[in-house]
Design goal:
58% helix, Transcription Elongation Factor S-II, Chain A, binds iron/sulfur cluster, mainly alpha
């Protein structure tokens, strides 16, 4: 389907191939661009984008002034590109995930006001061909893999002749999810060391803001608010049971992500029967980012694959990441709501 894109569409949907084509070929290297005046403006724009991505969605500006001239659009699209480069240099998966989620949400806000023709064009551009009121089962299943609300489960959908019925509002939600997944798949980018060195002040600033945001969001560690899987891993450790490598990784990353100090994480692991201080110290520091890459605890889907999603409860049905469970439980207070934490089945 051919649709005439307007200038501002490139700023709205910078991930489209047309937006990249609009930028044209630039003879400057990225290093030269970063040193140029327009590069400096684009860098400021990129930092604004990442700062917005790190803010909780409720604290972000609802409206965004879109540029109306070619230069403004180029700065905006360059800001999108540079933001991806900066988070790639920062080497932290959580930052990458935050940016992908932010970009998807941003595109979603524009898409819901778009005319049908343009909406379908954007959908087609990101691989959701023929996205009208239904989707082929295989495509549907792929797109909803990261969505854990009951309503997305195939058994709860109308399926006819291999097509899953979707309402227009749901289609926008699936578009947002598809953008997120595609952007996540592309990141982190392979960025030359020289470029990352030039961007070091920005990556450090972003890491600092992120750390602060995590502290504000998670606050003091509250073990009672841990999700059942993490409680089970801790119980296994305390009980003197060896836990598999995937479990150690998940627990360490989770504890690190919620702000527990490496020394406290090591103290927890010393309860394990096969505790080895040197090895544990190395693993904890590695997962906490000493090697330059900070790790994020696995999602619920990954935990299920490893076979360490256990005792899931009713809150688990509404979330897709153990960190979300912890965040929600802390906000609500530590006590589960009546009937909420009754599950004991292995999921
Ligand atoms: S659903 Fe997620 S949070 Fe709940 S127990 Fe399983 S992995 Fe943990």
């Amino acid at each position: 389907m051919r649709v005439a894109l307007e200038l501002k569409d490139f700023a709205k949907y910078p991930f489209l191939k047309e937006s990249q084509q609009f930028m044209g070929r630039n003879a400057d290297s990225i290093e030269e661009f970063l040193r140029s005046n327009s590069g400096k403006i684009a860098l400021r724009h990129a930092m604004d984008r990442i700062r917005a991505a790190l803010r909780p969605s409720g604290q972000r500006d609802r409206e965004e002034d879109l540029p109306s001239d070619g230069l403004g659009v180029k700065i905006s699209v360059s800001g999108y590109v540079l933001a991806r480069i900066i988070v790639s240099c920062a080497g932290d998966r959580s930052l990458v995930e935050r940016l992908a989620r932010y970009e998807a949400q941003r595109a979603f806000r524009f898409l819901i006001d778009e005319e049908e023709e343009k909406r379908l064009f954007v959908a087609g551009s990101i691989g959701m061909n023929g996205a009208g009121s239904d989707l082929p089962v295989i495509q549907y299943v792929e797109i909803v893999a990261g969505l854990h609300e009951e309503r997305w489960r195939l058994v709860n959908r109308d399926v006819e002749s291999g097509q899953v019925r979707i309402t227009p509002a749901e289609m926008n939600e699936l578009l947002r999810e598809q953008v997120r997944v595609i952007l996540l798949r592309q990141l982190p980018l392979r960025v030359p060391e020289t470029v990352c060195s030039l961007l070091q002040p920005q990556t450090e600033e972003i890491r600092g803001i992120f750390q602060q945001t995590m502290l504000e969001q998670f606050g003091a560690v509250e073990e009672d608010a841990f999700p059942p899987c993490m409680q089970a891993l801790i119980a296994a450790l305390t009980g003197g049971t060896n836990i598999p490598h995937a479990g150690r990784f998940a627990l360490t990353a989770f504890l690190h992500n919620i702000g527990m100090a490496p020394a406290d994480i090591i103290a927890l692991f010393c309860r394990a029967p096969d505790f080895d201080l040197g090895k544990t110290q190395y693993q904890v520091e590695h997962i906490s980012g000493r090697g330059g890459t900070e790790y994020t605890a696995p999602s619920c889907a990954a935990m299920r694959t490893y076979g360490i999603c256990v005792h899931s409860d009713r809150l688990c049905e509404k979330i897709n990441h153990p960190l979300n469970y912890y965040r929600i439980r802390k906000k609500k207070g530590k006590k589960p709501e009546p009937g909420e934490s009754t599950g004991t089945s292995q999921s």
